[in-house]
Amino acid sequence: MEYKTQTRQVIMDYMVENPDRIFKASDIAKNLPSISLSTIYRNLSRLEKAGLVQIVGAEENKELQYRYTGPGRCQAKMHMVCKICGKFFHLDGPALKMLLLSVQRIKGFELDQQQSVLLGRCAECSIATKKPQPRRRMRHG
Length: 141
Description:
The protein is of the alpha+beta class.
């Protein structure tokens, strides 16, 4: 068992207080200015190895994103993550069952639900990013 530092606990507390978000190390650094970015990266790496944090993916600028997956959190559920606002949502119930069965039909492949994340845009961000279509002018004549 690795020694638990006060800094690591502060980072964990921040993530636990924001359970339905994904984080970049730079986001955490902005909210916890007393902790250096390199210290945050080092601690996120250790927390990921301990199974308390999951790497969700990377943004276009290649900065990794993380989510808290502490003990008993979100077991037997998959997640959908909005790449724009960072919110994540549970995928469970009939929708998850249908997805798992569909994927299993592909050469017997079984998804690791705890490690699987679907990336996309939430409804609010989808609406906000849609541009209104210009009206076509009718020709008379």
